[in-house]
Write a structure and sequence with these properties.
Elements (H helix, E strand, L loop, with lengths): L1 E2 L5 E4 L13 E5 L10 H8 L2 E5 L1 H12 L16 E4 L6 H9 L3 E4 L7 H16 L5 E5 L6 H17 L4 E5 L4 E2 L6 E4 L3 H5 L6 H6 L1
Parallel strand pairs: 2-10, 3-4, 3-7, 4-5, 5-6, 7-8
Antiparallel strand pairs: 1-2, 8-9
Protein name: Thiamin pyrophosphokinase 1
Pfam families: TPK_catalytic
InterPro entries: Thi_PPkinase, TPK_catalytic, TPK_catalytic_sf
């Protein structure tokens, strides 16, 4: 995504995920971390995504979030909330749950390689999937609220840094309940900031901004 008259400029409009434009194609990846999202915000984001991926224990986190919204995915007919892909070394998700989701349409890809994180392996598998399905994505949103562990934080940043080698030509943004994180590589960048973020008083939280 380049623009500019004399120089190439990478455009960033990260909050497009909340606008639901039909031309905006994105994927959702849910890692094994808490989902602190209120109301049905994440449900709408999920339903408007081209591809949804849960990563190992992230599958369980997604099911728990759905239950908080009154949705029992394993025992009710809510196929719109079934992940397209489930990846990881599968040490944090029940085989029974995986089998049920497979029968509901999920593609299960076990990635036991311990030289890479489940996050990195998920991006690679997502890249293979979009090539196979000939899907063009504008962006990938990786949902991860930091647990406070420094090794997890640095591991996620490291994966962001390597994301170009895992899935080409797609911007990857980590999104938490109160922040967004991405890598600015060498070159020129233009970041579109919503007016409400400029005008809002200090201390307003992310959910208030989304609902304004």
């Amino acid at each position: 995504m380049q623009c500019g008259s004399n120089v190439n400029t990478t455009m960033w409009d990260p909050v497009q995920i909340f606008t639901h434009h039909s031309h905006y194609k994105y994927a959702v990846v849910i890692l094994n971390s808490p989902l602190y999202w209120k109301d049905d915000i994440l449900l709408q984001i999920w339903k408007n995504a081209q591809i949804n991926v849960t990563v190992d224990g992230g599958t369980y986190k997604w099911l728990c979030y759905l239950k908080e919204q009154g949705i029992d995915l394993l025992n009710e007919n809510h196929n719109e909330y079934v992940p397209n892909l489930i990846t990881g070394d599968m040490d944090s998700c029940s085989p029974i749950i995986l089998e049920k989701l497979k029968n509901m349409g999920s593609i299960i890809i076990e990635t036991p390689d311990q030289d890479h994180t489940d996050y990195a392996k998920a991006l690679f598998q997502l890249g293979q999937y979009v090539k196979m399905k000939n899907i063009k994505l504008n962006r990938i949103y990786v949902f991860t609220d930091f647990s406070g562990r420094f090794d997890h934080i640095m591991g996620n940043i490291n994966t962001l840094y390597k994301s170009d080698t895992l899935i080409e030509h797609v911007q990857v943004i980590q999104i938490a309940s109160d922040s967004m994180t991405w890598i600015l590589r060498p070159g020129f960048h233009s970041i579109i900031i919503p007016k409400i973020l400029i005008q809002v008083i200090a201390g307003a939280d992310f959910y208030q901004l989304v609902h304004l």
